[in-house]
Amino acid sequence: MNEGHNQPGPVELKTERYTLVPFTEEQITDRYLGWLNDPEVNRFLEVRHEQSTRESTLPFVASFYGPIEKYMWGIHVGGEAEPIGTSTLYDIKRRLGSAEIGLMIGEPDHWGQGASDAAIGMIASFAFDQLGLRRLTASSYTCNHGINFTLRRFGFAVEGRMREAFILSEGRYVDAFRWGLLSAEWKPGGRG
Hints:
Layout: E1 13-14, E2 18-22, H1 30-37, H2 54-62, E3 71-77, E4 85-93, E5 98-105, H3 115-130, E6 135-141, H4 145-153, E7 157-167, E8 173-182
């Protein structure tokens, strides 16, 4: 059950190199839809199973501005107007002090360049320091080595393995990890 109180509203987060800007329906552009529909970009995203359109994506994006506390940001390099990906903080349970994070780097030119590190670092700092949460969770396919490496480096621990939980586009089943990070284990240090 989500608990939707105390949401401070849209929040912009910054490092020296990256900025997380609230992602709104105006950012549902052909570029964004292209990421959601690109087999290379969406390889590890469940959205890949259906064609994404503005109409199908709008309710998802709009849900981040309703009564339930959750956040969606566009990931921007420096002062660039166009995002290179998106990140989320959702399933916030204030009573338990927990939330789930999500991430998509849509521009392949930015894979491995520090955007994931910066986004996770900013979200974790926001969740722990500003929202006062004590626990973050994330999910990943076991074969998504890039995000698994990044989560581990930030101090996330594998708390479970879901066997054959998802199916890749090739029709092969794949296991998934459930990750957890407590505020006391938080290791700031992404390349932002």
